[in-house]
Specification:
Layout: H1 2-22, H2 28-33, H3 56-60, H4 76-85, H5 91-104, H6 109-115, H7 121-135, H8 140-154, H9 159-171, H10 173-186, E1 190-200, E2 203-218, H11 229-233, E3 240-244, H12 254-263, E4 268-272, E5 275-276, E6 279-284, E7 287-293, H13 298-301, E8 309-313, E9 316-317, H14 321-329, E10 336-343, E11 346-353, E12 355-356
Helix pairs in contact: 1-7, 1-9, 4-5, 6-7, 7-9
Amino acid sequence: MTRFILTLTTTFWLASLAQAIAEESEPASRDNASSPNDVDSNIAPNPATDENSVNTATVAKSTETKASQTPKRFSESEIAKLIAELDSNVYTVREAATVQLAKIGRPALPYVAKAVESKELEVSVRTLGIIAGWYATDDKSMQDDIEDVIDQLLNSKDPSVVSRTSSFVGSHYRIREGRALKRIEELGGIVTYSTNTYINPVQPNMPRTGQYVSYILLGRQWKGGDEGVKYIKRLSQLPMIYLTSSARFSPISKVARDELVRALPMMKLQERGMACLGIGATPSAGGCQITIVKPGSAAHQGGLQQYDVITSFGGKEVPTFDRLIELIAEKDPGEKVKVKVRRGSIEVDAEVELGEWGRDSIPNPQGPIPRR
């Protein structure tokens, strides 16, 4: 029970601090009304046990984080002194240090990030609150650095730091998701969205209605290499990822692939060849039945139709959809392949010129979800 109250209060404190830092301004009357004139400076309120220990109106003054608004450059020793003051026995000193660190912004980030793992709870919670405040702003120059810091904190050896950071990430998932998806697309990943009611395997009791990520494809266009996998790891609700490769090409290494699987255990990962037929299918007696034919795909242009049952591909039998995937993986984009299908009671011979995953796979009809 004590741990629950501690976590709940800390989460409330982080949310209040982040909102205060993110606000552009506060009316002067509100500042005066919230002034801690009645606080004994010798009393040391603790944010983990006293939800009123953070004067959010005072912290709101720290919102002016642009370079032109920063009064001066702070040295490493000055920043270190401010971080030390976060554990002062004097409440007003802690408040002033919190405000000043928030004002400094990006130059203070490495030091503030390190202090989150402090053994002193007051320092840890305050510095995470400062990062939360920065995170809520639209300062794009800091976004990548802050996301990297959050990744580090989620892998901290201190379970309490991981717990507090996870709570923050959970309440800001949509922002984090949007930023990660933007970077994935910039690096050549293909993100496909769907609009529907979706049962997330990570949270099966919380159906999600609306637009969501259906899958991500990493293929020949992927320029992120193994380093770019960190953006995919941030998508804890990602249901599916496709990796397309050949004997001469793979978008990421096996090491990165295994790390991705460990980081997202509920995600389904499928490896495909570079070639693409452009269908969806389901098992059927004596072959696999086509359920979807993508317009303009190799299958569509070759005359394959919905409900056709593929019995042979390239002269080899197709007992299952998995076997068809294996046979397609043996081919190259642009290669022509003979296909036999059963259409009702008749057998039909067709020829398809295979497309390429990413270029000719099922597209994203809805477009991306809104992002900050």
